[in-house]
Amino acid sequence: MPADKTSKPSSALIPSKPVERQFGGELVRVEAVFRNPEIRHPSGGAWALEADKIAWTDPMSGYACIILRDAKGMHLRGFVAVPPGHPFYGRQVGTLVGYEIGVHGGLDYSSECQHRQPEYRSVCHVRIKQRQPRQIHANAAAKAHDDAWWLGFSCNHPGDAWPNISGRLVTNEPLAGLNEATYKDERYVYGECVRLALQLKAVELGSHPSDADPGPTARAYDPNDYGER
To answer: Could you list the residue range(s) of the whole structural domain that residue 76 is in?
Structure first.
C-alpha cells in the first residue's frame, strides 16, 4: 500500500543519536518518538502525555521493539521484530499457538515491515537521520535491512480499557464495570515488549519460550501517577 502523501507532517523526534525515555523507574534509550497527526488526542489521562509511537532496541535480546497507538481504538499495541533465520520468521500467528508465548492477550499480529507506511504509524524499522546526507536503520537485529518479521499484541482485550474522544475510559465489555478494566499505558506495554523479546530470543537460541518468560508485567495504569486523584 503506497504511503499517504496527503497526510500532515508528523510531530516526530528523530534524533541523530538515541535519546532516553522514562518507563516507570527505568530509563531507556530509544531511537524515535512520534505523535500521529491523524489521531485526535483526548485531553486528560496518561494518553495526553504519551507518544503514539516509540521505537527502541531491546539491549538484552538485540531485537527492535515498537509501542504503537491504534489510530481507531486509541489503545496501545506492542511489537518485536525477529531477523531472518529465526524459527518464527515468516510464520503466521495461528501456527505459533503451541509455543504458548506469554504476552498480554496473546500474539495477534505477524507481518513483514510496512515499508511504505509513514513512519509515525508504521510497524517497521525507524531510520535515524544523520548529519551526513544518508539514512541508516536503527535496528541492529535486521543488519540495516527492512527484512525483519514483526510479532505483536494489543491492549484491547477483556480487562482492558482505553479513552474515547472525550477522554473517558471505555471497554469492549458493556456489562463489566470499569473497576475491573484498566488502561494499559506506555510502561505496561514496554514491559510486555521486553517480556516478548526475551521469549523470542530463547526460541532463537533453541530453548522453549516459557524458560525465559519473566511473567506478566505487574503494573498497569495508575491515575495516581498522573495526578488524577
So the answer is: 19-226
- Rounded to whole angstroms, how far apart are CA atoms 73 and 163? 8
Task: Provide the 3-class DSSP secondary structure of residue 32.
Answer: strand
Q: Looking at the domain assignment, is residue 2 inside a domain?
A: no
Q: What is the mean pLDDT of each run of 10 residues along the chain (229 residues)?
A: 43 57 88 88 84 94 95 93 94 94 96 88 72 36 62 94 85 65 93 97 96 85 53
Distance CA 143, CA 132 (A): 19
pLDDT of residue 220: 57
141 in any annotated domain: yes
CB 16 within 8 A of CB 130: yes
Q: Considering its fold, how many domains does the chain have in total?
A: 1
Helix (H) and strand (E) counts in the chain: 1, 14
Residue 5 maps to a domain: no
Count of residues in the chain: 229
Residue 137 lies in a domain: yes
Distance CA 161, CA 23 (A): 20
Q: How far apart are CA 105 and CA 160, in angstroms?
A: 10
Could you give the CA distance from residue 113 to residue 93 in angstroms, rounded to a whole number? 16
Q: At 52, list the grid cell.
A: 503514539
In angstroms, the Cα distances linking 143 to 107, 123, 146 are: 25, 17, 9
CA distance 91 to 95: 7
Report which secondary-structure segment, H or E, holds 56. Answer: strand 53-57
